[in-house]
Structure formats: C-alpha cells, structure tokens
C-alpha cells in the first residue's frame, strides 16, 4: 500500500488477526527513489515478491508515457531500473492504448515486463507487442503481433494485467468481434489467447476486476445503488478448472446494505474466509461472507491519493544480481 505521492508506503499482513495489529503493518520506502524527482508513484504489478513501479515526473503529463520504471523487492531492498522502450518513446505512440503486465517464466528463470499496444484512436498504426527480459536486460519485440483489442474503460490509456497460472490477463474489448473478452498472454509460449466472460457479467458494471478467490482465478464486480444509502452488491465468479473454455460459476453475492459508502473493490480473501478490500478514502475494510463489516482501518490522510497491490514477501533476487545477492549473504554471515 502506498500514497500516490512518494511519501509513505506500508506492508500489511492480511492474515493477521486484526487490521489494527501494529506488528502486522510495517512502514517501508524505496530509498533508491529520490523524493524531489517524482510527482507520484503507481504500482503496476507484482510477482514473486517484486513490485513493478512507475514513477512519474511532476513537470510532465503521465498520459504521454514519461516516467521511470523500477522493479523492487521490498523485503530485500533489491531494485532495478528498466530502460524505457524505444517503441513507447516515439511521440507518434503517445495516444496508444497500452496493456501492461509483469510475470515470471519459470522455464528460463526470467522475469518479463510485457506491453501490448494498439492505436485505438486513429487506427493508422499497426499494433505492437514487446517484453523486457530481466535476464537479457533488453526489450524484445513479439513478432507477428495481432492485437485487435482496446481498453474497455475508454477514459484509461493504460491497463494493468493480472498474473495467474503463468499468464497475464486483461479485460479488453475485441474490436473485430465487437464484444468484451478476457485476453491473456502466456509467458512460457509468448502467445495471446482469449477467454470468455460469464454470461451475466455485463459491461455496465460499476467496478470489476480479477482476483484469486479460494485459489481459483476469479472475477469480482460491484453494483452500486442509485442513492448514497442504497444497497451495493459484490458478486464473485470463479473458474474452478483453468481452461480457455471452462465455465464460470457465481459463488458469492455479498450485499452492503445501509452503508454510507458504496464502493468496495476487494483485494483478497483470507484463510478464515473474510474479504479485505479498499474504500475510496484512506484505508482497508474487512467483511465476513455475509456482508457484515468487521473492521475498518485508516492508514493515510487521503490528501494525495493511495493505492494497494497484493504481493507475497520473498528473499528472491533478480536474475542478473543473484551472484551479488549470494555475496551479500556471505558477508552478513
């Protein structure tokens, strides 16, 4: 969890008995990032204990893709700056839709930063696919990219993918078929494939996203009431067998009646079955499976905005600094 301006970050153990458990919340900060250089930071993905960070310059507009990219392990402090893609540096590409993702290819012990892009505004330029290999330390083009997709949220230029089962998943609108789908990128085969959405999963949903629920790839959606005190509902679908044509099963319908706030994007479900999510202000909320709020804890003052990313702590190092990490362990011993 971090504020949008690079002032404070916290690591929170969601399996702790309470959100108010001080031992479960640790303040941390990427000290390699100079405070005076950036206006705000966005978390664009996580994988095996590493976070993908976009650090935006205050004097430049983020919509034009001017930012620095870092991969950071908060548990060890290891970090790496990723060079900007030559393709994305082209001013002709500033209005492209970008589909971002961060994942791991276990067959090569390599971390990949994936970027698919398309000219959704003018359709004059061909789509482009590329990925940055941490092991090779270079951007590589995905040849023969066919990418007839655009962001279903028309006011957002950059879509962040969800990593599950060795593939990065995005919600997308498939232009040639005129329908909304899930498009996924297989990190092992370096190929795209489509997955269908549930039949009752509608584009008019107020908020929606991916998460893992009961160890399955899952979708969540929030329906808001018409009035601030009307009922809101969280619905959850799971894919119990991960295949392209596998069915989705709606497993949870969670009402939030009588609350003064309506939005509750979920983050994770705990081992005890509780659901933790964010609100539109400064903190986290915990609900049981009947929709009863168990806890709310505020962490920031809310003036700068904030965001949350789920990650699992690890002592892993990046492929190009494994030897340096081993030397550091021996020196500490």
TrEMBL record:
The record's section on Pfam families has: FBA_1
Domain F-box associated beta-propeller type intervals:
46-253
Task: Quote the PANTHER family the UniProt record gives.
Answer: BNACNNG10540D PROTEIN, F-BOX PROTEIN CPR30-LIKE
**What protein name applies here?**
F-box protein
Q: Tell me which species this is from.
A: Trifolium pratense (Red clover)
């Amino acid at each position: 969890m971090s504020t949008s301006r690079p002032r404070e970050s916290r690591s929170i153990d969601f399996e702790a008995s309470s959100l108010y458990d001080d031992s479960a919340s640790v303040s941390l900060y990427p000290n390699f990032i100079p405070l005076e250089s950036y206006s705000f930071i966005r978390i664009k993905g996580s994988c095996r204990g590493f976070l993908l960070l976009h650090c935006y310059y205050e004097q430049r507009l983020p919509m034009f893709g001017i930012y620095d990219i870092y991969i950071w392990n908060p548990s060890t402090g290891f970090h790496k700056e990723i060079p900007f893609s030559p393709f994305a540096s082209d001013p002709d590409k500033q209005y492209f839709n970008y589909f971002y993702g961060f994942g791991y290819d276990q067959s090569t012990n390599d971390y990949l930063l994936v970027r698919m892009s398309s000219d959704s505004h003018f359709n004059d330029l061909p789509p482009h696919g590329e990925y940055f290999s941490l092991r090779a330390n270079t951007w590589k083009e995905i040849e023969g990219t066919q990418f007839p997709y655009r962001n279903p949220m028309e006011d957002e230029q950059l879509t962040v993918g969800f990593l599950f089962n060795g593939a990065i998943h995005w919600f997308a609108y498939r232009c040639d078929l005129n329908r909304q789908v899930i498009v996924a990128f297989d990190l092992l085969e370096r190929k795209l494939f489509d997955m269908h959405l549930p039949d009752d999963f509608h584009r008019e949903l107020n908020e929606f996203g991916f998460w893992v629920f009961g160890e399955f790839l899952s979708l969540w959606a929030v329906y808001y009431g018409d009035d601030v005190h009307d009922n809101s509902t969280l619905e959850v679908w799971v894919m119990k067998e991960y295949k392209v044509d596998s069915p989705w099963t709606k497993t949870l319908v969670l009402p939030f009646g009588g609350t003064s706030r309506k939005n509750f994007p979920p983050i994770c479900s705990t081992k005890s079955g509780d659901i933790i999510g964010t609100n539109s202000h400064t903190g986290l909320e915990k609900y049981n499976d009947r929709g009863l709020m168990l806890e709310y804890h505020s962490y920031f003052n809310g003036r700068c905005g904030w965001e949350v990313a789920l990650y699992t702590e690890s002592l892993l190092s990046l492929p190009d600094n494994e030897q340096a990490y081993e030397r550091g362990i021996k020196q500490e011993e």
